[in-house]
Amino acid sequence: MKALMILLLAGIVAPATSLLGQVQNPVHWSFTAKKLNATTYEIHLTGVIDAGWHTYSQTTPDGGPVPTTITFSANPLVTLVGKPVEVGKLDQHFEKLFGVDVKQFSNKVDFVQKITLKKPVRTNIGGSVDFMVCNDHECLPPSNQSFSVALP
């Protein structure tokens, strides 16, 4: 009987603890290059965001949630043109939790960085996206997503 109780308890506790250990990943990233001419590209860092979640603009003010930060690795063949442009439906509203106006994206956001190559050669551009996601009940710790995009 005691062995049966232990097995029954293990059957309840084991699945519950495995659920606690699952990592939530509500933003699904893809990284692509769009060739504009022989030496000019747009790098697209696209985040598809699960329903109910949102991530933040690069220009979210201090005191608020962690803004998205995009860092490109040095490549002597590549020159960044300006800063990444945010493409998506930007929602800006006062958030009582943080006490500031937050700038956030839901569903999808595309960060577009224009680059030029010093000459038409094959190379890669890499880097990382640091971002934070929240829903109406919780915020997840900031995450980092590395990327590398081929420039054919």
Write the layout of secondary structure elements.
Layout: H1 2-20, E1 27-35, E2 40-49, E3 54-56, E4 69-72, E5 78-87, E6 90-95, E7 100-106, E8 108-117, E9 123-131, E10 133-134, E11 143-151
What can you see in these coordinates?
It is a single chain. The chain is mainly beta and 152 residues long. It is elongated. The model is unreliable at 1-19 (pLDDT under 50). The protein has 1 helix and 11 strands, in the order H-E-E-E-E-E-E-E-E-E-E-E. The N and C termini lie far apart (68 Å). The protein has one domain: Thiol:disulfide interchange protein DsbD, N-terminal domain (Immunoglobulin-like, Sandwich).
Q: How many individual domains?
A: 1
- Structure summary, number of beta strands: 11
Largest sheet: 4 strands, antiparallel
Average pLDDT confidence is: 88
Q: What oligomerization state is this entry in?
A: single chain
What gyration radius follows from the Cα positions, in whole Å?
A: 21 Å
* Structural class by sheet pairing and helices: mainly beta
Q: Strand order of the main beta sheet, please?
A: 1-2-8-5
Which descriptors apply to this entry?
mainly beta; Immunoglobulin-like; 152 residues; four-stranded antiparallel β-sheet; single chain
